[in-house]
Amino acid sequence: MTDPSETEIQQEPPQIRFLRRLVTTLTVVMIGGLVVIISLLVIRLQAADAPLPAEITLPAGVAAEAVTLGSDWIAVVSQDNRILIFDRESGELRQEIQIKPQ
Predict the structure, then answer these.
(1) Residues 3-57: pLDDT tens digits?
(2) CA 20 to 30 Å from 70, out of 6, 45, 55, 94?
(3) Domain total in the chain
(4) Residue ranges making up the domain that contains 29
(5) Do 64 and 94 lie in a common domain?
(6) Which residues contact 65 (CB under 8 A, 6 or more apart)?
């Protein structure tokens, strides 16, 4: 014969089955959300090396290190310690600032 304690274990209440399914669904949704977040971060970080805006042409021998966009200007920090400020509409060089090394 079967032990009465075994039959109690096999027949669980419907609330427990519902709770088990709910926890399993939540786990699957959380794993899926984590995969989506990691994918978006990878895509965004790869896009961080975007080129300069099309209207900007750097002088010969100048390599951009950083770009900052203003309301009507674009600032480019070059690798040779200069800040080049361009007009946003025309793309012409407005100002050049030499950065003193420390």
Answers:
(1) 666 655 578 888 999 999 999 999 999 999 999 999 999 888 876 555 677 777 8
(2) 45
(3) 2
(4) 4-47
(5) yes
(6) 77, 78, 79
